[in-house]
Design goal:
Pfam families: Abhydrolase_6
Distance between the termini: 38 Å
CATH architecture: 3-Layer(aba) Sandwich
Largest sheet: 6 strands, parallel
Radius of gyration: 19 Å
CATH topology: Rossmann fold
CATH class: Alpha Beta
Helix content: 25-40%
Domain AB hydrolase-1: 42-261
Protein name: Alpha/beta hydrolase
Order of helices and strands: HEHEHEHEHHEEHHEHEHEHH
Strand order of the largest sheet: 2-1-3-4-8-9
Structural class: alpha/beta
Organism: Streptomyces dangxiongensis
Shape: globular
GO molecular function: hydrolase activity
């Protein structure tokens, strides 16, 4: 349930009668961080088969550290269009940004952050870090170990100009083992029910830009990842010269282990604040 829904529910009494909402807080200037003036805004980009709620544990921790946090919903329709949408989010933020991507979201932030001067750090969480011309699907197959192909099914959706497009979802019975091993069963079941499909075209679309070549980066390797082989994650992190940590966790590491994920983001934030 999103924060907005929770907030709405909180205004209802036990009998379902609406109570007066508290007085609105004074309006803040758009994009202004809540903490110190030099505290970066953290923008969290989810990947395929997930949604923004997958960052909930990380968001809570970052907010306790005084960070303003944005976690927009990613369309998952195509790399160029997804990156353009996230760029519009970045352009709405005042001040420095730490931009974080999980899984396919890593490819998106690598493209969206190009020539975005407010983005001072990139953080990849079990994510793709493509070179120009590389696709997520290509990088998945670069090293053995991914079982995603056996766990997904294809769905079809209508295209605006006619015809059908293909999108992938993880079979619900396989979701926890494939994506969220170690996450409590009930939590994984909720995640499986609400998973966001990604188009096959998005996974095949090659990157046209690579912001990690100019922006400092951090990388978290999930050593129990079944979507992206951990060997591929290490290889991409090394190629990007990222500050790298490893966590024994599944692909959904932001859900299973939000503490280490938050710690890495805070490291990147401290680096931005210190000017390094």
């Amino acid at each position: 349930m999103t924060a907005s829904l929770l907030a709405g529910a909180a205004t209802l009494g036990a009998a379902g009668v609406a109570h007066p909402a508290p007085a609105a807080a004074p309006a803040r200037r758009p994009g202004r961080p809540h903490g110190r003036p030099d505290t970066p805004t953290v923008v969290l980009i989810h990947g395929a088969f997930a949604d923004a709620s997958s960052w909930s544990g990380v968001v809570e921790r970052l907010q306790r550290h005084g960070h303003r946090v944005l976690a927009p919903a990613l369309p998952l329709r195509g790399l160029a269009s997804d990156a353009a949408y996230i760029r519009s989010v970045l352009d709405s933020v005042t001040g420095p940004i730490v931009l974080v991507g999980h899984s396919y979201g890593g490819a998106v932030i690598s493209q969206a952050a190009v020539d975005a001067p407010q983005v001072r750090a990139l953080v990849y969480i079990a994510a793709f870090v493509p070179e120009v011309g590389e696709s997520a699907l290509q990088l998945t197959g670069k090293f053995p170990g991914s079982t995603l192909g056996q766990a997904t099914v294809t769905q079809y959706y209508p295209l605006a100009g006619g015809g059908q497009g293909e999108e992938l979802v993880i079979e619900k019975d396989l979701f926890r083992k494939q994506f969220a091993a170690g996450v409590p069963v009930r939590t994984a079941q909720v995640m499986a029910a609400g998973q966001r499909p990604i188009t096959l075209a998005a996974l095949k679309e090659p990157a046209t830009a690579a912001a990690w070549k100019k922006i400092p980066s951090w990388y978290l390797v999930a050593t129990e990842d079944r979507n992206i082989p951990p060997a591929a994650e290490r290889w991409m992190a090394e190629r990007a010269r990222a500050h790298t940590v490893s966590v024994r966790a599944p692909h959904a590491v932001s859900v299973s282990d939000p503490g280490p994920v938050t710690d890495l983001i805070l490291r990147a934030s401290r680096s931005v604040r210190s000017g390094h």
